[in-house]
Automatic annotation (TrEMBL), chain A:
SMART domains: AAA. One of its GO terms (molecular function) is ATP binding. PROSITE patterns: ABC_TRANSPORTER_2. Residues 2-246 form the ABC transporter domain. This is Transporter. It comes from Salinisphaera japonica YTM-1. Belongs to the ABC transporter superfamily. Ycf16 family. Keywords: ATP-binding, Nucleotide-binding.
Automatic annotation (TrEMBL), chain B:
GO terms for biological process: iron-sulfur cluster assembly. It comes from the Bacteria. Belongs to the iron-sulfur cluster assembly SufBD family. Residues 182-410 form the SUF system FeS cluster assembly SufBD core domain. This is FeS-binding protein. It comes from Salinisphaera japonica YTM-1. Residues 32-173 form the SUF system FeS cluster assembly SufBD N-terminal domain.
């Protein structure tokens, strides 16, 4: 699905990513963990196309295409979805309107006709039920007056509607109570299929208990310093990130 | 004063123009005397210049150098020419003025309720010798352009509501500049006289057809009786070479309310003065305005709320959206006189700059002589939130589309306060059409 090779990036001249290598095969869920400031969110943002980061070296291939050469909207039309850590509010533009516009933008990109209004509403109702939102909320302005947990549910609702090939969820599990966490993890599990891949950027093992990843990678000081199966989460919880430095030293010596 | 200024060729032109049409202007002999006085007042100062503090950022040089002629009659226009300007689903009584004259054929005033008069102001003046060209109750109409209007106006709408009368359906007043000839001017004056406890919604809709240069000068007077309520909508869609000047003078008695909503979307240059004087207790005025200069448009809003006595309320919110080389000006003056204790007033103006060539000057101006008042004010100038732009792009919306949608969101917060759904939809759709990439999102409205 996506292949990241020797990715270096900086913001305002300060290096953040210092040679990330990562392969995510079709159908797999990979988690990226690591301490604050390790570059997790930067990596997610770069994949989605945020412009304030400068990629200085390396490449990202998505479904055989150079991802970094595509505009963010083009990436979305090609099936990349970013779940935001801090979703924005857009009063006066309803959640449903945004989703219909997003679906139609993608259809137009692929030369397909616009989505039928009845089909769209049926689909929306089904997905709204999955994430425990109400139709009334979906008709409100995008994230307008939503609580933190509601915003994250809404991100998952959008993800289920847009059915991406590659979903990148940037700390979508942060700040959630257990009910909302279950909604998020159920949403991800629903999306799982042989042709879709998911990248979970997270601080917490809690999400990974409900949504078991195929692989876990530890990002530290801008590099992947350790990769492993789901059991790595337990190790990290027991030992913390404290001995990563020695790992890194061992790896480079 | 230099000799050159004394014989200003521009003023000469308008003096000659007045002599040419004077005998056809409606009104009694008294009215004609007032018109002459007003003409002199205009001639003394001429068109305002940027040396005038009130016109610091708005130059009328382009208007002054032209020689606009007043229309002798209205051009014949087809009803279908107005179709594109009719808000869908908007049920209203309709009074249409073409080139400054009432057009009965295009108007629809058949089922007015008892106690409500709506007619051509010219007809009203002809039928009532006692009615003046300026409302007695509105003590002052400052500015040389208001004077020019008082001298020249050919027609307008006259609305009178008897005590307790309610106009259920809004009145839609359409002022069309036909664009049939080059360099024409329309001078139109509306008068609204509201009896006690009466209520009406009036939409003043300025429309320009064609691509000829013209000058539209509109004055509206509103005399509000006790506990009366006016909801007034100004919808300005002059054409690309239209110069639009509009002044509103409100006079508010006890418990009366004015809700004024202005949407400036068209014209080459627009200058809007909105004034209301709250002469009695518990009078209330709300001024909302959205101005959207794009391309090379220039839009200048000046407001003046005069709190004369205690316990009156004013609320003012303006939003500017400026794109291209658009130029915007806002000056909101709130005067709280010595006796106006317990005044409750708030003013905010927010401007959104969509291009680095656009420019706005926004200034609240509070003048307070009473010591026990609440008077808040705020002003912001900003750009679109880039995080929000990225959010929309990450969902597949194009860059232009994302900017149009977010701009819509910014303005919509004020548009939706109007409370007349068909006009809200119409304004939103027109706004989206003005924005690059916005057309694709016209159904947001």
């Amino acid at each position: 699905m996506i292949s990241i090779k020797n990715l270096h990036a900086e913001v305002e001249g300060k290096p953040i990513l210092r040679g990330v290598d990562l392969e995510i095969p079709d159908g797999e869920v990979h988690a990226i963990m690591g301490p604050n400031g390790s570059g997790k969110s930067t990596l997610a943002s770069i994949l989605a196309g945020r412009e304030e980061y400068e990629v200085t070296q390396g490449s990202v291939t998505y479904k055989g295409q150079e991802l970094l050469e595509m505009d963010p909207d083009e990436r979305a039309c090609e099936g990349v979805f970013l779940g935001f850590q801090y979703p924005v509010e857009i009063p006066g533009v309803s959640n449903l309107y945004l989703l219909r516009a997003a679906l139609n933008a993608r259809r137009k990109y692929h030369g397909e006709p616009e989505i039928d209004a009845v089909d769209f509403m049926q689909m929306a109702q089904e997905k709204i039920d999955h994430v425990g939102m109400s139709m009334e909320m979906a008709k409100r302005g995008v994230n307008e007056d939503f609580s933190g947990g509601e915003k994250k549910r809404n991100e998952i609702f959008q993800m289920l509607m847009l059915e991406p090939n590659l979903a990148i969820l940037d700390e979508t599990d942060s700040g959630l109570d257990i009910d909302a966490l279950k909604v998020v993890s159920d949403g991800i599990n629903r999306l799982r299929s042989p042709e879709r891949s998911v990248v979970l950027v997270t601080h917490y093992k809690r999400l990974l208990e409900h949504c078991v990843p195929d692989r876990i990678h530890v990002l530290y000081q801008g590099q992947i310093v350790r990769s492993g199966g789901p059991e790595l989460a337990d190790t990290l919880e027991a030992e913390g990130y404290a001995n990563l430095e020695t790992d890194e030293a061992a790896a480079t010596s | 004063m230099s000799a050159a200024e004394q014989i200003d060729p521009s003023i000469d032109h308008y003096l000659a123009e007045f002599s040419r049409i004077e005998r056809d202007l409606p009104g009694s002999d008294d009215s004609k005397r007032v018109r002459s006085t007003e003409l002199k007042r205009f001639a003394e100062t001429g068109f305002p210049t940027v040396r005038d503090e009130e016109w610091k950022y708005t130059s009328l040089a382009a208007v002054e150098k032209r020689r606009f002629e007043i229309n002798d009659e209205s051009a014949a226009i087809d009803k279908s020419a107005l179709d594109a300007f009719m808000p869908k689903g908007f049920e209203a009584h309709r009074l249409v003025l073409v080139d400054g004259y009432f057009n009965a054929g295009l108007s629809d005033l058949n089922d007015l309720p008892a106690g409500v008069t709506v007619r051509s102001f010219a007809d009203h003046l002809r039928d009532n010798a006692g009615v003046g060209v300026k409302a007695q109750e509105v003590d002052d109409e400052p500015g040389s352009l208001a004077a020019m209007n008082a001298a020249f106006f050919t027609d307008g709408a006259y609305v009178e509501t008897a005590s307790g009368a309610v106009l259920e359906k809004p009145l839609h007043i359409i002022c069309v500049s036909s664009g049939a000839h080059d360099d024409r001017m329309t001078q139109v004056r509306h008068r609204y006289v509201f009896g006690e406890n009466s209520q009406a919604t009036i939409v003043e809709h300025a429309i320009g057809l064609g691509d000829k240069a013209y000058f539209a000068n509109v004055v509206t007077e509103a005399v509000m009786g006790r506990n009366a309520q006016l909801k007034r909508v100004r919808l300005q869609e002059e054409s690309e070479r239209g110069y639009h000047v509009s002044a509103f003078f409100g006079q508010q008695r006890r418990d009366s309310r004015i809700f004024n909503h202005a949407f400036d979307l068209g014209g080459r240059l627009a200058r809007i003065d909105t004034n209301s004087r709250l002469v009695d207790q518990n009078a209330e005025v709300h001024l909302n305005g959205v101005f959207v200069p794009t391309g090379r448009q220039h839009m200048d809003n000046h407001t003046m709320i005069d709190h004369d006595t205690e316990h009156s309320i004013s609320r003012e919110q303006y939003k500017g959206v400026l794109a291209g080389h658009g130029r915007g000006v806002f000056n909101g003056k709130i005067l709280i006189r010595k006796d106006a204790q317990k005044t409750d007033s708030d003013l905010s103006v927010d401007a959104l700059l969509l291009s680095d060539k656009a420019e706005v000057d926004a200034k609240p101006e509070l003048e307070i002589y009473a010591d026990d008042v609440t008077a808040g004010h705020g002003s912001t100038v900003g750009q679109l939130d880039e995080d929000a732009v990225f959010y929309l792009k990450s969902r597949g919306i194009s860059e232009e589309g994302a900017r149009a949608v977010l701009t819509y969101s910014f303005a919509n917060a004020l548009v939706e306060q109007l409370g007349i759904a068909p006009i809200e939809r119409y304004v939103e759709a027109t706004l989206l059409k003005k924005l690059p990439g916005g057309e694709a999102f016209a159904d947001l409205a």
